[in-house]
Amino acid sequence: MVDFENSARQAGSSGAKRAVVVGAGIAGLAAALRMYRAGWDVVVLERSPARRSSGYLLNLHGPGYDAAERLGLLPALAPRDIGFFTSVLVHADGREKFTIPATVAQAAVGERALSLFRGDLESALYDAVAGHADIRFGTTVQTLTQETGSVEVTLSDGTHLRADLLIGADGVHSRIRDLVFGPEADFLVDLNHMVGAFPLETVPTHVPEGVGTTFLGPRRTAAVMNLGPGRSSAFFTYRSPDTAAEPAHNADAALTSAFGDLGGGIADALHQLAADPAAAYFDSVGQIVMDRWSRGRVVLLGDAAWCVTVFAGYGAALALDGADRLGAAVAAHGDDLSAALDAWEQSLRPEVRKRQALARRGISRFAPPTRVHVWLGDLMLRAIQLPGIRGLVQRSIQRANN
After folding, report:
1. What is the pLDDT of residues 249-302, one digit of tens each?
2. pLDDT of residue 395
3. Staple partner for 56: which of 170, 177, 197, 211, CB 3.0–4.6 Å?
4. Distance between CA 42 and CA 224 in Å, rounded?
5. What is the pLDDT of residues 110-126, one digit of tens each?
């Protein structure tokens, strides 16, 4: 019991309920912030030894923007908003096909939207919660047991924690999901694609500042954004019939093999990756599909629970919205945690189902299966610039966000 008493003093001595959050990404930090605001003491466990500051570009609009507003994040996020930028579709050698002005995307999405780097959103969340939570880096959960009124975990440093609620927000390869619900293979639906993303330390010489270039080819897409020093990045995705055979720890070799024939800004980005392969996020693309996101006093959140994938373009929005709704449900149901988790899941599951379905249908936009699909995609993107078609696209996006 001494370990539990010591950990209680470290987490706070207010007598409030305690939540342990596993994972200091967007979902975990948002959950920590929301639970603190609901009056709980919060401990955050993160396996990485330090904060991560890079990542790919993401968009917050619709419920994601609304959740960021409810969480009080907009004042911190607004100065980091990249805004809308010009998109240029290119041939394999980097020559321009056609341009989509920034105003087209702005008109389609509307004013209540933010474009951010993942690291900027995580930084805003961290700054908002760091003074109110016990955040422990380089720490993982080794074992987990549940009793009627608590959940107890043994940590990698040998200490123990007792909590009223444990939130597993530790990503698609969740340790908490493995411990409580079973192995990843029971829930992971492989979409047979790989994705890579990394920041560019040097702005790409073949891409003008304020422009994002995209190559769309059969079964693959590559995009490079030059938004100035410290704000530029690259994104790649390609079809893989056997993702298990991909060199998961060698993004440089895998991406060069898949995209090394391309020129322009894409070649620039690959050269930079060769100098620092560890800078890349590189993984297979898969969705987590579960019948239930909670068991007893353990609940999964974000990619650990549902993972809509980058093809949905909605992962960060769902993480924020899910965390905010979780805190609201727990606050509304008082001591009845089971009812709170049931109500939370009922409210969120329809949105998750919709986003996962949209992601599966959207794969062909990211990795068109044939040259005919590439041509049709180009035709659609050109047509978006026509006023009448632009209005249809805007209404379609608005329906998706409702």
Report:
1. 789 999 999 999 999 999 999 999 998 888 888 999 999 999 999 999 999 999
2. 52
3. 197
4. 39
5. 778 898 888 899 999 99
How many distinct helices (H) and strands (E) make up the chain? 13, 18
User: What whole-number distance in Å separates Cα of residue 345 and Cα of residue 337?
Assistant: 12
- pTM greater than 0.85 (yes/no): yes
Which residue carries 């909590």 as its tokens? 163
Q: Taking the C-alpha atoms of 19, 122, 77 and 384 in order, what is their torsion angle to the nearest 10 degrees?
A: -120
Q: Distance between CA atoms of 252 and 270, rounded to whole angstroms?
A: 8
DSSP string covering 5-43:
HHHHHHH-SS---EEEEE--SHHHHHHHHHHHHTT-EEE
CB burial of residue 242 (10 Å; 0-12, 13-18, 19+): exposed
- Paired with 197 in beta bridges are 235, 281
pLDDT at 55: 66
Residue 245: exposure state from Cβ atoms within 10 A (0-12, 13-18, ≥19): exposed
CB atoms closer than 10 angstroms to residue 162: 20
Q: Which two tokens stand for residue 140?
A: 């993982």
355 within 8 A of 401, measured Cβ to Cβ: no
Could you tell me which residues come within 8 angstroms of residue 1 by beta carbon, excluding any fewer than 6 positions away?
Answer: none
HEC-encoded secondary structure of 310-361? CCCCCHHHHHHHHHHHHHHHHHHHCCCHHHHHHHHHHHHHHHHHHHHHHHHH
HSE value, Cβ hemisphere, 13 Å, CA-based, for 393: 18
Let me know how long the chain is. 402
Beta carbons of 375 and 206 less than 8 angstroms apart: no
Domains and CATH numbers, the chain: 2-56+119-187+287-363 (3.50.50.60), 81-116+190-286+364-400 (3.30.9.30)
